[in-house]
Design a protein that fits this description.
This protein is an alpha/beta fold and 316 residues long. The protein has 2 domains: 98 residues, Winged helix-like DNA-binding domain superfamily/Winged helix DNA-binding domain (Arc Repressor Mutant, subunit A), CATH 1.10.10; 210 residues, D-Maltodextrin-Binding Protein, domain 2. 45% of the residues lie in helices and 21% in strands. It has 15 helices and 11 strands. The strands form 3 sheets. Strands 3, 4, 5, 6, 9, 10 and 11 form a 7-stranded mixed beta sheet that branches. A two-stranded antiparallel ribbon has the order 1-2. A hairpin with a 2-residue loop joins strand 1 and strand 2. The protein is globular, with a radius of gyration of 24 Å.
């Protein structure tokens, strides 16, 4: 009977094969290089991230492919596209990486004190989380929260953040994900303006795929006076009377300088998801902070769910 090659095992018993290959074929240095190439897409970028020369990265990848018996990457010019085998190996390596990080910081993480890094889009860090920091300090005075407002999806596995809030359901990853709120949107303008023919303040091309931007794109023939790459910029333009914009009810209805307008059709809804790595969730200060995040977010967004259709109902 012919003994199957490692590549054949991947197709026969994927879970067993990947774990066996990880133990037999990869040192931790190999795993780091595989991960870096999957994450960064090119040998040059991976070598820069790891602080090694590109020849080392190339040599390690060739050795891995020789040991495993199947290509790990498809070449597209200088870009390396991971195969399914490489993706699954990278996922196991990420899990090992997270376990190592947790193991080497047990003593510090056993405490209720220290930093917890939270990433979310700027409108959530600035208008939902930041105003509630005093409550967290009262509950857990030893915790120092780092709020990172960004549209980029920072890596939980690499500990670029401990907790993430995202406005879309994650499609993959080893982390835990839970939907904690629904974000309702409305149309707002500054008080005291003539609301007839107010131009729109829209989203620029970097945000053209988000639901609220697609909703606004259907307003064909209605003038757009400006566009912004983030809600904070759009909010400030609305507040000084430049035009009207679609924004979360939780933001617009809190701002005393704004008034809600009748929307031509109901604006979209978006789901807000809380993400955390499984091992990181066990850290006491992270668990405490997660409870605070969930309570604050639910209060901010759920309070407007029952009111969401008030203006439309009044107009009927």
């Amino acid at each position: 009977m012919t003994r199957p090659r490692p590549a054949d095992l991947v197709d026969i018993i994927p879970g067993y094969a990947i774990n066996a290959l990880m133990h037999r074929a990869l040192s931790w240095d190999d795993a780091r290089i595989l991960l870096a190439v999957v994450r960064h897409g090119t040998q040059a970028a991976a070598s820069k991230a790891l602080g090694v020369d590109q020849a080392t990265v190339s040599r390690r990848l060739l050795r891995l492919e020789d040991v495993i018996g199947t290509p790990l990457f498809l070449r597209d010019g200088t870009r390396l596209v991971p195969t399914d085998v490489a993706q699954r190996m990278a996922q196991r390596a990420e899990e090992a990486e997270a376990s190592l990080l947790a193991a080497f910081s047990v003593d510090a993480e056993a405490q209720n004190e220290g930093s917890v890094r939270i990433t979310a889009v700027p409108m959530i860090t600035a208008h939902v989380l930041a105003p509630a920091l005093k409550l967290l300090h009262q509950l857990a005075p030893g915790i120092v929260v780092e709020l990172v407002g960004t549209h980029e999806n920072l890596s939980l596995t690499r500990r670029e953040a401990d907790i993430a809030l995202r406005l879309a359901r994650p499609s993959n990853g080893s982390f835990l994900a839970r939907r904690i709120a629904t974000v309702h949107y409305g149309v707002f303008a500054a008080k005291g303006l003539d609301r007839e023919d107010l131009p729109w303040i829209g989203y620029d091309e970097t945000l053209s795929d988000v639901p609220e931007a697609r909703w606004l794109a259907r307003r064909e023939g209605e003038p757009v006076i400006a566009r912004g790459a983030d809600l904070e910029t759009i909010l400030q333009a609305v507040r000084i009377g430049v035009g009207k914009a679609v924004m979360p009810l939780a933001i617009g209805r809190r701002d005393l300088a704004l008034v809600e307008l009748l929307a031509p059709e109901p604006p979209p809804l978006r789901e807000l998801w809380l993400l955390v790595e499984r091992q990181v969730r066990q850290i006491r200060r992270v668990a405490l902070t997660m409870g605070w995040v969930e309570a604050v977010v639910r209060e901010a967004f759920t309070a407007h769910e029952e009111q969401e259709s008030d203006i439309h109902a009044a107009a009927q």
